[in-house]
Design a protein that fits this description.
The protein has about 210 residues and is mainly α. The chain is built from 11 helices and no strands. About 60% of the residues lie in helices and about 0% in strands. It comes from Fregetta grallaria (White-bellied storm-petrel).
């Protein structure tokens, strides 16, 4: 366990990459993220909660069991890992990260990526130390990738059209309705209804009209 009380995000990230355990508890039963939150180091909490070791993704770049081909081509592991570990979850930011990488901005590549994200989501929910936050994040990115595929297939302006749709505001008040509906749809499609995080999100969003 490590205690990121100094508030240094870079050091926290370096320690995570060096193999620091995030789910071990200290003498008072708190994890590193909980301790960082307790002392007000919320940037460090964000880094810890968004960390996903590259080797966990690389697992899918090798054939498993009876598979003849890996689920994720090696060339896609780097670009996908960059998106998985980003702390900016705005849908426009995620689409821009897809758009800036030619290897990723293709229908077949995105199909492989979102299927891997769905597998990681499932593993996060079924492992002994359930990680609902990471599961929800993987599911959310997967939903955005699937929407990217729709725009790549159906729209001439492709991902630019997706970004415009996300940014377009309602005429009377500028509210981004498409963006709001996309986020709500991703929450509604989360397959693990018993998840505490899902129930909290639904309770927060349900009373709020678009």
């Amino acid at each position: 366990i490590f205690l990121p009380n100094s508030g240094n995000k870079e050091i926290t990230w370096m320690m995570l990459e060096a193999g620091a355990e995030t789910d071990v508890v200290n003498s008072v039963g708190r994890t590193a993220a909980q301790m960082a939150a307790f002392v007000g180091q919320h940037d460090c909490v964000t880094v810890i909660n968004n960390f996903f070791p590259r080797e966990r993704l690389d697992y899918y770049t090798k054939p498993q069991g009876l598979d003849k081909e890996p689920k994720l081509p090696v060339k896609l592991a780097g670009p996908l890992h960059k998106i998985i570990t980003t702390t900016n979850m705005h849908p426009v930011k995620i689409v821009l990260l897809v758009k800036e990488n030619p290897l990723l901005a293709e229908v077949e590549a995105l199909q492989k990526c979102y299927r891997v994200l769905d597998l990681i989501c499932e593993k996060c929910m079924k492992q002994k130390d359930m990680n609902e936050v990471l599961a929800m994040k993987m599911h959310y990115i997967s939903c955005i990738f699937q929407k990217c595929i729709t725009f790549l297939k159906e729209r001439e302006d492709k991902l630019d059209g997706f970004i415009k749709s996300l940014l377009k505001g309602r005429d009377n008040d500028g509210f981004p309705v498409y963006q709001e509906k996309l986020i709500r749809e991703s929450i509604r499609k989360f397959p693990y209804c018993e998840a505490t995080l899902l129930q909290q999100l639904v309770r927060s969003i349900a009373p709020v009209e678009i």
